[in-house]
Amino acid sequence: MFNFEHPKLIKLAQIEGFPDVEAMVEHSVMDSVVPAICVKPDCDQATESEPDQRGGYCEACGHQTVQSNLVICGMI
Fold it and tell me: Quick check: 25 and 4 in contact, CB under 8 A?
């Protein structure tokens, strides 16, 4: 079961201009670069990443905490 209710996914969909998380994920499944976000509680830095990104570098907070939307929702 996928988690489309994760607060970081909701925030990322808003930042990226999608009407909802489902639309963002649907768009991402067919792309080689997808929306991603820092998952630290105090950071909402959005970027793009590979679909399977689990620990990308966050330019805002300096941690290896960037995850793709597909990883956060549990698709990958």
Answer: yes
